[in-house]
Request: fold
Amino acid sequence: MGLYDRFELLEMRHNDGVQTYHAREIATARPVQVHFLSDPMENSALLASVERLTDAERRRVLDLGEIQGIPYVVTDRLAGYATFREWLTRQAAASQKPGIDMQFWKLFDASHGTAPAPVIEYPPIENPPVETPFYDNRFFEKEAQPDPEPQPNPTLRTTIHVVPSAAKLTLGLVLGILAAVLFLGMALAIFAFRSH
Reply:
């Protein structure tokens, strides 16, 4: 279906290099705006701005296309904005600022002291241990080969990332409670055994 099969143009509202028409969606009678990008020097920049919209604003774009070589964008009514270009400019500026969700999470992380995990580096291992098999060679017919001489590796470093975890803390708490219950059970059993 083409543009004119889906939307009925009602009246031109603006013409500043972007011709904006009030229109309605024929199937639903929903009010929309159709914006014809008539300035070839600016069209690619405007279309790139449409692609960079946030998800919430991108949902306001109902259709994109081209008719007779002229790109068009169909949006819902852009109330509060004088022109299509103003809407894109303001949305581009707003996308540069952290949103409410991002500000909230930054505040939340800062209030709980969530900092990057410290990295503990140990000196290079001079002679890394040679892995020994977990099986006994007596059960294999192949003749055992002597272990090769380990070579020092000065570039091998061991790095441990210390990451506190709620799961680890919860597990420690549960194990502590179980140990306490087991201790009390043993104490009661000993006391009951001695009293008989």
Q: What stands out?
A: Residues 14 and 20 are 5 Å apart (CA to CA). The beta strands are 7-15, 18-25, 31-37, 61-67, 70-76, 119-121, 159-161.
